[in-house]
């Protein structure tokens, strides 16, 4: 045990002092090389529609297959080639290691931060409805429950008219006779 890479032959000497002939050459190969740490590339954050993020990795072993492991969680991505994309990552801070075809494990990558999914705003609350009059041909609807942080855009359906603003209230004016619903899009696009 403990032999370094090289070519060896062996003899055996018994208790009587007799020595055998040498064995054929025994070759001990060099230890397989450990892969380098994966390189963190583009990080795609969760959206209003997709709750998880992804991380593009490069610097993976070009020869043979490999398996990338995410920490924490232990999720894996198997493949070949020098790049790969780890998908389905919940909000957390991750590092990645790669195991090459020889079973050698790389050092950990740099950190990749996946943010939490942006919050979807609640539906606007319909308040006072002002109906058309003899003098004004359109109506208006007061809305509350709008996002208190950042800007927002309210869209009326049907018609697609919009109202942009900030704060928790707003009034949609200029509405022709119809039955309307309203949706709000917050600053994150949800």
Task: Summarize the topology.
Blueprint lengths: L5 E3 L17 E3 L10 E6 L8 E6 L6 E7 L4 E5 L2 E7 L2 E9 L11 E3 L10 E6 L8 E6 L6 E7 L4 E5 L2 E7 L5 E6 L4
Antiparallel strand pairs: 1-2, 3-4, 4-7, 5-6, 5-8, 8-9, 10-11, 11-14, 12-13, 12-15
Describe the structure.
This protein is mainly β and 190 residues long. The chain is built from no helices and 15 strands. The chain has strands at 6-8, 26-28, 39-44, 53-58, 65-71, 76-80, 83-89, 92-100, 112-114, 125-130, 139-144, 151-157, 162-166, 169-175, 181-186. The strands form five sheets. It has a four-stranded antiparallel β-sheet with strand order 6-5-8-9, with no helix packed on it. Strand 5 (65-71) and strand 6 (76-80) form a beta hairpin. The chain is rod-shaped, with a radius of gyration of 33 Å.
């Amino acid at each position: 045990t403990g032999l370094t890479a090289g070519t060896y032959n062996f003899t055996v000497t018994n208790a009587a002092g007799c020595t055998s002939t040498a064995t054929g050459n025994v070759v001990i190969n060099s230890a397989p090389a450990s892969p380098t740490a994966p390189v963190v590339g583009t990080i795609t954050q969760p959206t209003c529609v997709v709750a998880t993020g992804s991380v593009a990795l490069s610097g993976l072993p070009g020869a043979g297959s490999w398996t990338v492991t995410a920490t924490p969680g232990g999720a894996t991505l198997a493949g070949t080639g020098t790049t790969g994309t780890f998908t389905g990552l919940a909000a957390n801070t991750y590092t990645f290691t790669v195991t090459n075809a020889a079973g050698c494990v790389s050092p950990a990558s740099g950190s990749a931060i996946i943010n939490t999914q942006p919050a979807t705003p609640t539906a606007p609350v319909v308040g006072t409805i002002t109906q058309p009059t003899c003098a004004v041909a359109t109506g208006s609807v007061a809305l509350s429950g709008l996002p208190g942080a950042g800007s927002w855009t309210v869209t009326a359906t049907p018609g697609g008219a919009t109202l942009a603003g900030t704060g928790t209230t707003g009034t949609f004016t200029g509405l022709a006779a119809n039955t309307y619903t309203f949706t709000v899009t917050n600053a994150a696009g949800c």
